[in-house]
Amino acid sequence: MKAAPFDYVRADSLSHALETLNQFGGDAKLIAGGQSLVPMMAMRLARPTCLIDINRLNSLKDIQLQAHEVKLGASVRQRDLEFHPQLNSHLPLIAKGIQWVGHEQTRNRGTVGGSLVHADPSAELALAALVLDVRLQLESQTDGVRTLQAADFFLGPMFTAVGETEALTDITWPVWQGGRIGTAFEETAIRKGDFAMASAACQIQTSADGAITKISFGLGGIDGTPLVYPELAASLMGQNMTPELAQHIAHAAAQQSQPGSDMHASAEYRKHLAQALLTRALLSAYQESLNAQAA
Q: Which helix (H) or strand (E) holds 227?
């Protein structure tokens, strides 16, 4: 199929883009990478009457690394994260998760903000955003600027809190302080680069004696949005991770999900897979934190 007819506007400034969004309302879509939007348009699952091209807006391509946070413009390419020389030290979870995002060709064009706004439940960056509790800045010509935490941003499959006349402009990723940090990102797909059947992400910080002092983890691809588990994470504080404890926590997390069944896997298999991946992620991240404190 071919896309339905649409108008095209190349924005020369953020205010121009916001003005055009306000003019067309819910009938317009912003485009920077187009790796998700264009295929949906080709299948007529999305039918915007206007595409607003924001590729020339350099203000949305900034990467600002600071001691306590990393601020990314919404149009930062995924490949720019993948090959950034300092990213691993600031956001090691992203450095691992970005390897699972699509294929090299799609990462060359796909943007960080585009992936988050698309809100695919199996998207790696969406899962990482929830695990790290990012802040997302939205701007509108009429309503100004507002900021949301990741937990309030993802509302359902392909559905976010972005208003019809709003644009995602910046994403701020917290940088954990203090060292002794371990991360892990695990995923299973039919083929490398395909949509994840299930994924798991974890970041852990431990004390000198191996006790967990900070932890966040989540699952992707097994519910309407990626899932994080602050209550289960809180129950691990002060403990040393063991295989038995990791399996118990992973089982409890998977049981809180409601995956669907399709031609690739049943709901029960996806729960089983999620439990296995999260168990592996918890143990791998914990061991990395122990190695970090020993180094």
A: strand 227-228
Has residue 1 been placed in a domain?
no
Domain count, the chain: 3
Q: Which residue range(s) make up the domain with 88?
A: 58-174
Element (H, E) at 65: strand 63-65
Over the stretch 59-100, which tens digit does the pLDDT of each residue have?
999 999 998 999 999 999 999 999 998 888 899 999 999 999
State how far the Cα of 37 lies from the Cα of 30, in Å rounded to an integer. 9
180: left (phi over 0), alpha (psi -120 to 50) or beta: left
38 burial via Cβ count (<10 Å: 0-12, 13-18, 19+): middle
Structure confidence by residue, pLDDT tens digits, 119-130: 999 999 999 999
* Residues β-bridged to residue 201: 185, 218
Sign of dihedral through CA atoms 77, 154, 24, 36?
A: positive
Residue 13 maps to a domain: yes
The answer to whether residues 144 and 186 belong to one domain is no
* Proportion of the chain in helix, strand, coil states, percent, rounded to 5: 40, 25, 35
Alpha-carbon distance 96 to 67, whole Å? 20
Rounded to 5 degrees, φ, ψ at 247 are -65, -40
Q: Do 169 and 81 fall into the same domain? A: yes
User: Which residue is listed with tokens 């900034």?
Assistant: 62
What pTM was computed for the model? 0.94
DSSP per residue, 146-203: EEEEHHHHEEETTEES--TTEEEEEEEEE---SS-EEEEEEEEESSTTSPEEEEEEEE
Report yes or no on 189 lying in a domain.
yes
